[in-house]
Specification:
The complex is a heterodimer of chains A (553) and B (276). Chain A is mainly α and 553 residues long. In chain A, 70% of the residues lie in helices and 1% in strands. In chain A, strands 1-2 form a two-stranded antiparallel sheet. In chain A, strand 1 and strand 2 form a beta hairpin. In chain B, helix 3 crosses helix 5. Classes of the chains: A mainly alpha (553), B alpha/beta (276). At the A-B interface, helix 17, helix 18, helix 19, helix 20 and helix 24 of A face helix 2, helix 3, helix 4, helix 5 and helix 6 of B.
């Protein structure tokens, strides 16, 4: 695994980013992690019963596991010194070897093996301490990695505040300082250990309903303040990222109606996104292709309406298509719209690859105003997302929401119960399209321009993936999914080459470990985790039925 | 005037004629059964009436209106409801929600009203929920409204499916093997229940059933299908004695054999039922 990481080229790229200033880079951290993991796995699988396995055996297993992992890297360095592997595997460059051997060259080839052994021993040793401490330590290390990654982000605002001294102590311009790293691990591990020893979670659980209710408003207010202040003081880049996240939350909630309630898998979401974006572009732009130069607020209703009409227009021919076939058909629509937007045919109207520029911001304020730039987009997106969440909740508990769920469950039976499939499905489609159009319109205002290259299949995939990762049908799930799938990749732009690799790993892990999503809705959790206490349909008369009959008799 | 009339209904699947020139009628307020061996075309006929299958020939008339060619939801709007041989509830909705879906066509709320939750919509929802609880009580599922339909015991699922069908306030109810998989006590219970639907609610019932005791006990008239053809029709007493029916169930020659061997009081249909 360490070999794989080296050869795929992650290590050198990530080495650009220090985790702890001048000590460990992110790339090295990856390798260290594999050493730790190998040691841990080897130690837990060592021969004998885990409960009464002797200390030396555990340690030995850990050391062997770690050493073997390190050895593989050593072999790589040695081979690399003799043959130039770059002809075969491009990332196997001298830079990689420098990272691996602490810049000692071939003379340092022993380094990975030794480090691997040491890490294996460490991992095995962690098995010997009480599990309580081990878990706290792991959390401490996790916090170290997280803080190291976000150090640059956190440092900027801290320097400008009363916390400036603390910021300087903990954070280098990129990554943690050595002091900061030690402090972080000690502090986080200590606090976690304290919480566990005091068993805080159980105590919170013991609090009575009324006590919890009195605690709730302050927590909510605090969360609200954090959300409102989020884009402030963190610089324009971060504001742009949170605005994008808010935008995807909005679209995720929109698709949640189509996919989460009615069960219509729409992979052509980007089509309506494009319609909304171009409508706003055409109506508001002060440059070449603008036709009306309206203010943003006048253009928004049109963008939503036209996206909705497109939803109906594209929805009609595919109403009879079910399941997987529907996904493919909608995928096709998304591609058609994408290609049309960049085509020569529509170039005189939409500008082709040159796009529509000079789309004004919704609220005209001077550059240093707190609503300037991406900040106002963030707030607008949040407000719209709130409205959509409200609409979705109200619809879910209505006649219409029930009809949608019924269609998702069994289309034929729903129709036989008097549900008009054409109307009901079309409405789900149109609402989803309207919200996608709204997202596109806000996106156009966020970027200030709209190009054919912004209309990518990846927009559709993102929206579907964030719903699935977050938890289908769940509003907090959509929020969390957007933060994970949109926010994190934006923050790690320099590693964008590996974006899809991590994306894929995340999706596979999700489906393996938590198929219901990170924060599933109550109903989905119910579906996936309740023990099945019902006999299969058509089974012979069950004991329950018999017992009931006896009761009645 | 009959409530439902089928004239020369024919349904083919490729070369197979599943229902052949079937004539059939139901008077209002009666319980009519369709019986026949497996593959005789009973469920196919149901699906034709409910609009699931287009018919190849003939007409189906409900209350003076031709219904073949209408979509299933239009037919449901005429207040024809059905249940399914293999229970088809909305498994991931609660029992109460299942019944509320059954009321779909009687509710008026549109999406704007639902979002704004206007007083009218709120009142309608309250009444619908009340009605759904009443139906739950009626079929004996008191207090189980919040359980997921798919998690209910088998017998409860059968009952819930009927409650969902009743939520449409049907004039004609199509029941496809409502006692399948039930023990004798359950079956007797269901028989009484079906009779009460007709007596208390005035609903006409079209019943597909294998259990001869049920069929003979509650039907006014019985139609027997075999290979898609109607081979007999009449009162339970007439059907019992019809040699073609016994032949269809037990094979050629069985009827004569039975009537020769059995004591005069013995009932060939009971023997048939036992053999089944």
């Amino acid at each position: 695994m360490a070999l794989y990481l080296c050869l795929v080229g992650i290590v050198p790229v990530f080495s650009e980013r220090p985790l702890i200033d001048d000590v460990v880079s992110l790339g090295q951290a990856f390798i260290l992690l594999t050493g730790l993991l190998a040691g841990y796995v080897a130690a837990t699988r060592a021969p004998g019963d885990p409960a009464d396995r002797s200390t030396p055996i555990t340690l030995a297993a850990g050391i062997i596991g770690g050493t073997l992992t390190g050895l593989a890297v050593t072999v790589l360095v040695l081979i690399g010194a003799v043959i130039d592997l770059r002809a075969i595997i491009q990332p196997a460059s001298p830079a990689l070897y420098d990272v691996l051997t602490l810049e000692l060259g071939v003379a340092g080839a022993w380094v990975p093996t030794a480090v691997g052994g040491a890490l294996g021993a460490l991992a095995a040793a962690s098995l010997l301490v009480p599990p309580l401490v081990r878990r706290s330590l792991a959390i401490g290390l996790g916090a170290l990695v997280l803080l190291g990654l976000f150090a640059g982000l956190l440092r900027t605002p801290m320097l400008g505040s009363p916390l400036s001294a603390l910021g300087r102590l903990l954070f280098a311009p990129e990554g943690l300082t050595a002091v900061g790293a030690v402090l972080t691990v000690v502090a986080v591990t200590g606090v976690d250990l304290l919480l566990r020893v005091l068993d805080v979670r159980r105590r919170i659980g013991d609090l009575s309903q009324s006590q919890r209710r009195t605690a709730l408003p302050p927590v909510l207010v605090f969360a609200l303040v954090v959300i409102l202040l989020l884009p402030q003081g963190l610089g324009p880049f971060f504001a742009q990222v949170v605005a994008l996240v808010a935008l995807y939350i909005l679209m995720g909630l929109g698709l949640n109606i189509t996919l989460g309630l009615a069960g219509l898998l729409d992979l052509g979401f980007v089509a309506f996104f494009a319609v909304g974006a171009y409508t706003v572009g055409l109506l508001t732009s002060t440059a070449e292709f603008g036709i009306a130069q309206w203010p943003f607020w006048a253009a928004i209703p049109f963008a939503v309406l036209i996206a909705m009409l497109f939803g109906a227009f594209l929805g009609l021919p595919i109403l009879g298509i079910r399941g997987d076939y529907l996904a493919i058909a909608t995928l096709g629509f998304g591609e058609i719209i994408r290609i049309l937007a960049g085509s020569d045919l529509l170039k005189p109207i939409l500008g082709g690859p040159r796009g529509i520029i000079n789309i004004p911001k919704p609220i005209d304020v001077p550059p240093d105003h707190f609503l300037a730039g991406a900040q106002q987009i963030y707030y607008i997106s949040l407000i719209c997302a709130g409205i959509i969440a409200f609409v979705a909740l109200r619809l879910r508990d209505s006649r219409l929401g029930r009809a949608w769920v019924a269609i998702r469950e069994d289309e034929d039976v729903a129709e036989a119960m008097g549900v008009n499939l054409v109307h009901t499905k079309l409405l789900a489609y149109m609402l989803g399209a309207a919200f996608a159009g709204l997202g596109g319109a806000i996106f156009a205002a966020l970027i200030g321009s709209i190009f054919a290259s912004s209309i990518q299949l990846f927009v559709s995939i993102n929206v579907v993936a964030l719903i699935i990762v977050g938890g289908m049908g769940s509003i907090p799930g959509v929020v969390l999914g957007a933060v994970f799938l949109i926010g994190l990749p934006e923050l790690f732009r320099e590693f964008s080459e590996y974006r899809f690799l991590f994306y894929g790993i995340a999706l596979i892990l999700m489906m393996r470990l938590r198929p219901e999503g990170l924060l599933p809705s109550r109903i989905v959790r119910r579906e996936m985790h309740l023990p099945d206490n019902v006999e299969p349909h058509g089974a012979p008369v069950g004991s329950q039925v018999a017992a009931e009959a006896q009761e009645r008799a | 005037m009959p409530l439902l009339v089928a004239e020369g209904v024919t349904k083919r699947f490729g070369g197979l004629v599943a229902v052949h020139k079937l004539d059939f009628s139901i008077e209002p307020g009666t319980i009519i059964s369709v019986i026949g061996p497996n593959g005789a075309g009973k469920t196919t006929f149901f699906n034709c009436v409910a609009g699931f299958y287009p018919i190849d020939d003939g007409r189906i008339i409900f209350d003076g209106q031709q219904i073949n060619g209408l979509r299933p939801d239009r037919i449901a709007h005429l207040r024809i409801s059905r249940t399914y041989q293999n229970i088809r509830l909305f498994a991931n909705m609660t029992a109460l929600e299942n019944i509320l879906v059954g009321q779909h066509q009687h509710l008026k709320a549109n999406w704007i009203g639902a979002v704004l939750r206007t007083p009218g919509v709120r009142r309608e929802e309250e009444q619908a929920t009340q009605e759904a609880r009443r139906l739950l009580d009626f079929v004996g599922l008191q207090g189980k409204g919040d359980a997921l339909a798919g998690k209910l015991p088998y017998g409860d699922q059968r009952r819930l499916e009927i409650a969902r069908a009743l939520a449409n306030q049907p004039r004609l109810l199509l029941l496809d093997e409502p006692t399948a998989g039930m023990n004798p006590a359950e079956t007797a219970n269901m028989t009484d229940f079906i009779r009460s639907l007709r007596d208390a609610l005035g609903i006409s019932v079209l019943l597909i059933e294998h259990e001869m005791r049920v069929v003979m006990g509650i039907s006014e008239r019985i139609t027997v299908l075999d290979y898609g053809e109607k081979i007999a029709e009449g009162s339970p007493r007439q059907i019992r004695a019809d040699p073609r029916v016994i032949e269809a169930y037990l094979g050629r020659g069985a009827a004569s054999g039975l009537s020769a061997d059995a004591a005069p009081s013995a009932d060939p249909i009971d023997a048939t039922a036992a053999a089944l």
